[in-house]
UniProtKB/TrEMBL annotation:
InterPro entries: DinB/YfiT-like, MST-like. This is Uncharacterized protein. The lineage of its organism: Bacteria, Bacillati, Actinomycetota, Actinomycetes, Micrococcales. Pfam families: MST.
Length: 172
Protein backbone atom coordinates (compact mmCIF):
# COMPACT_ATOMS: atom_id res chain seq x y z
CA UNK A 1 0.00 0.00 0.00
CA UNK A 2 1.59 3.34 -1.01
CA UNK A 3 2.07 6.02 1.62
CA UNK A 4 0.20 8.45 -0.61
CA UNK A 5 -1.51 8.48 -3.97
CA UNK A 6 1.74 9.90 -5.39
CA UNK A 7 4.19 7.37 -3.93
CA UNK A 8 6.07 5.42 -6.61
CA UNK A 9 5.61 1.70 -7.01
CA UNK A 10 8.36 0.72 -9.41
CA UNK A 11 8.14 -2.89 -10.50
CA UNK A 12 11.77 -3.45 -9.68
CA UNK A 13 14.00 -4.75 -6.93
CA UNK A 14 16.92 -2.81 -8.39
CA UNK A 15 18.16 -0.48 -5.63
CA UNK A 16 19.31 2.21 -8.12
CA UNK A 17 15.85 2.26 -9.71
CA UNK A 18 14.26 2.51 -6.26
CA UNK A 19 16.55 5.40 -5.28
CA UNK A 20 15.76 7.18 -8.53
CA UNK A 21 12.01 6.71 -8.05
CA UNK A 22 11.96 7.84 -4.44
CA UNK A 23 14.22 10.84 -5.01
CA UNK A 24 11.89 11.89 -7.84
CA UNK A 25 8.91 11.33 -5.57
CA UNK A 26 10.30 13.62 -2.85
CA UNK A 27 11.33 16.31 -5.34
CA UNK A 28 7.77 16.40 -6.71
CA UNK A 29 6.30 16.32 -3.17
CA UNK A 30 8.38 19.40 -2.31
CA UNK A 31 7.33 21.02 -5.60
CA UNK A 32 3.60 20.43 -4.90
CA UNK A 33 3.82 21.75 -1.35
CA UNK A 34 5.71 24.90 -2.35
CA UNK A 35 3.37 25.70 -5.24
CA UNK A 36 0.49 25.75 -2.74
CA UNK A 37 1.98 28.77 -0.94
CA UNK A 38 1.74 32.48 -1.71
CA UNK A 39 4.95 34.40 -2.38
CA UNK A 40 4.66 36.00 1.04
CA UNK A 41 4.38 32.56 2.70
CA UNK A 42 7.30 31.23 0.64
CA UNK A 43 9.58 33.95 2.01
CA UNK A 44 8.30 34.09 5.61
CA UNK A 45 9.01 31.81 8.52
CA UNK A 46 6.45 30.65 11.04
CA UNK A 47 8.97 28.51 12.89
CA UNK A 48 11.26 29.24 15.86
CA UNK A 49 14.27 28.09 13.82
CA UNK A 50 13.58 30.91 11.36
CA UNK A 51 13.86 29.22 7.95
CA UNK A 52 11.39 29.99 5.19
CA UNK A 53 10.02 27.44 2.70
CA UNK A 54 12.03 29.09 -0.10
CA UNK A 55 15.20 28.80 2.01
CA UNK A 56 14.49 25.11 2.52
CA UNK A 57 14.15 24.74 -1.27
CA UNK A 58 17.48 26.43 -2.01
CA UNK A 59 19.05 24.14 0.58
CA UNK A 60 17.69 21.05 -1.20
CA UNK A 61 18.97 22.31 -4.56
CA UNK A 62 22.50 22.83 -3.23
CA UNK A 63 22.46 19.74 -0.99
CA UNK A 64 21.79 17.37 -3.92
CA UNK A 65 24.46 19.08 -6.02
CA UNK A 66 26.97 18.84 -3.16
CA UNK A 67 26.48 15.11 -2.80
CA UNK A 68 26.16 13.90 -6.39
CA UNK A 69 27.96 16.35 -8.68
CA UNK A 70 30.60 17.88 -6.37
CA UNK A 71 30.72 14.86 -4.09
CA UNK A 72 30.36 11.67 -6.09
CA UNK A 73 31.56 12.92 -9.50
CA UNK A 74 34.09 15.45 -8.09
CA UNK A 75 32.88 18.07 -10.57
CA UNK A 76 33.83 21.63 -9.82
CA UNK A 77 30.58 23.44 -9.09
CA UNK A 78 29.94 27.12 -8.63
CA UNK A 79 29.21 27.95 -4.98
CA UNK A 80 28.64 24.46 -3.51
CA UNK A 81 27.54 26.11 -0.24
CA UNK A 82 25.51 28.78 -2.06
CA UNK A 83 22.48 28.07 0.12
CA UNK A 84 24.30 29.34 3.20
CA UNK A 85 25.10 32.89 4.26
CA UNK A 86 28.72 33.56 3.34
CA UNK A 87 29.01 30.01 1.98
CA UNK A 88 29.50 28.83 5.57
CA UNK A 89 28.44 25.15 5.71
CA UNK A 90 27.00 25.81 9.16
CA UNK A 91 25.43 29.17 8.38
CA UNK A 92 21.71 29.80 7.98
CA UNK A 93 20.06 29.20 4.62
CA UNK A 94 19.52 32.27 2.46
CA UNK A 95 17.80 33.11 -0.82
CA UNK A 96 18.77 36.20 -2.82
CA UNK A 97 15.85 38.63 -3.25
CA UNK A 98 15.95 38.29 -7.05
CA UNK A 99 15.56 34.47 -6.98
CA UNK A 100 12.01 33.12 -7.19
CA UNK A 101 10.17 29.84 -6.80
CA UNK A 102 10.12 29.01 -10.52
CA UNK A 103 13.88 29.43 -10.84
CA UNK A 104 14.60 27.26 -7.81
CA UNK A 105 12.12 24.54 -8.83
CA UNK A 106 13.76 24.40 -12.26
CA UNK A 107 17.16 24.01 -10.55
CA UNK A 108 15.72 21.30 -8.27
CA UNK A 109 14.44 19.23 -11.20
CA UNK A 110 17.57 19.85 -13.30
CA UNK A 111 19.60 18.53 -10.39
CA UNK A 112 17.30 15.53 -10.23
CA UNK A 113 17.95 14.79 -13.89
CA UNK A 114 21.69 14.91 -13.21
CA UNK A 115 21.28 12.55 -10.24
CA UNK A 116 19.24 10.11 -12.32
CA UNK A 117 21.99 10.12 -14.95
CA UNK A 118 24.57 9.25 -12.28
CA UNK A 119 22.44 6.39 -10.98
CA UNK A 120 21.89 5.07 -14.50
CA UNK A 121 25.60 4.53 -15.21
CA UNK A 122 27.35 3.96 -11.86
CA UNK A 123 27.27 0.99 -9.52
CA UNK A 124 26.05 1.68 -6.00
CA UNK A 125 29.20 0.06 -4.60
CA UNK A 126 31.38 2.59 -6.44
CA UNK A 127 33.19 5.12 -4.26
CA UNK A 128 33.01 8.85 -4.87
CA UNK A 129 35.85 10.38 -6.84
CA UNK A 130 38.50 12.35 -5.00
CA UNK A 131 39.07 15.99 -5.78
CA UNK A 132 35.65 17.55 -5.33
CA UNK A 133 33.99 17.37 -1.95
CA UNK A 134 36.18 14.49 -0.83
CA UNK A 135 39.95 14.40 -0.46
CA UNK A 136 40.11 11.05 1.35
CA UNK A 137 37.85 8.19 2.45
CA UNK A 138 35.04 8.82 -0.05
CA UNK A 139 31.68 7.17 0.60
CA UNK A 140 29.97 4.76 -1.76
CA UNK A 141 27.23 5.89 -4.11
CA UNK A 142 24.79 3.78 -2.05
CA UNK A 143 25.69 5.71 1.11
CA UNK A 144 25.27 9.02 -0.72
CA UNK A 145 21.85 7.90 -2.03
CA UNK A 146 20.66 6.95 1.45
CA UNK A 147 21.93 10.23 2.86
CA UNK A 148 20.24 12.36 0.18
CA UNK A 149 17.01 10.36 0.43
CA UNK A 150 16.84 10.91 4.19
CA UNK A 151 17.54 14.64 3.67
CA UNK A 152 14.59 14.86 1.28
CA UNK A 153 12.27 12.86 3.52
CA UNK A 154 13.21 14.87 6.60
CA UNK A 155 12.84 18.23 4.89
CA UNK A 156 9.59 17.27 3.12
CA UNK A 157 8.23 16.59 6.61
CA UNK A 158 9.47 19.96 7.80
CA UNK A 159 7.78 21.55 4.82
CA UNK A 160 4.50 19.81 5.72
CA UNK A 161 4.56 21.70 9.01
CA UNK A 162 5.38 25.05 7.39
CA UNK A 163 2.58 24.63 4.82
CA UNK A 164 0.07 23.60 7.46
CA UNK A 165 0.94 26.64 9.58
CA UNK A 166 0.65 28.90 6.52
CA UNK A 167 -2.66 27.73 5.09
CA UNK A 168 -3.98 24.87 7.17
CA UNK A 169 -3.50 22.31 4.40
CA UNK A 170 -2.04 18.97 5.31
CA UNK A 171 -0.97 16.54 2.75
CA UNK A 172 1.14 14.23 0.87
Amino acid sequence: MPLSRHEPRPDSADPAALFTSYLDYYRWAVDRKLRSLSDADLRASRLPSGWSPLELLIHLVHMEQRWFRWGFLAEQVDRPWGDNVGQDPHGPWTVPDDVDLAELLEALHTGGTATSAVLAVHDLEERAALGGRFTKDPPTLAWICFHVLQEYARHAGHLDIAVELADGETGE
